[in-house]
Amino acid sequence: xxxxxxxxxxxxxxxxxRSVDHLRFKKELALLVELGELANELPEVFxxxxxxxxxxxxxxxxxxxxxxxxxxxxxxxxxxxxxxxKIFIDHAPLGLDHKFNKQGxxxxxxxxxxxxxxxxxxxxxxxxxxxxxxxxxxSYEQIKRxxxxxxxxxxxxxxxxx
Length: 162
Fold this sequence. Notes:
Layout: H1 3-15, H2 23-40, H3 43-46, H4 56-77, H5 84-90, H6 102-113, H7 119-136, H8 140-159
Helix pairs in contact: 1-4, 1-8, 2-4, 4-7, 4-8, 6-7
């Protein structure tokens, strides 16, 4: 099952219990909040006043939370998952010496946070988000595994009345 299909099933489950008033704007705001939480797990990127180190495990969790909202926004826009895996594969870093890229993370975080979410811009915005993950030094397999783990958690939360 692809990520879009998994997200659509989760959205349907959640949407059946929630009001849809201004839902798209709420998703975009939630994405901004999650991007902030992601940034906070990467203090080496922007907290010039701090000596705290990046927490990559928590950053992956926050990245995946962002991915949920980005996929959900894409579903609302009418995008589909035919090119998602291709974007991840086409934009994967080359070579074995890939590592954390602070400037790349800062640039991509800023770009994704300022993105305008329209169908015409969706692929470009999604590509920037993918490149953000790679700049943090996450692999596609890590992202995919963490995403589906979080889908399972979110379904369980719905069962428990989260």
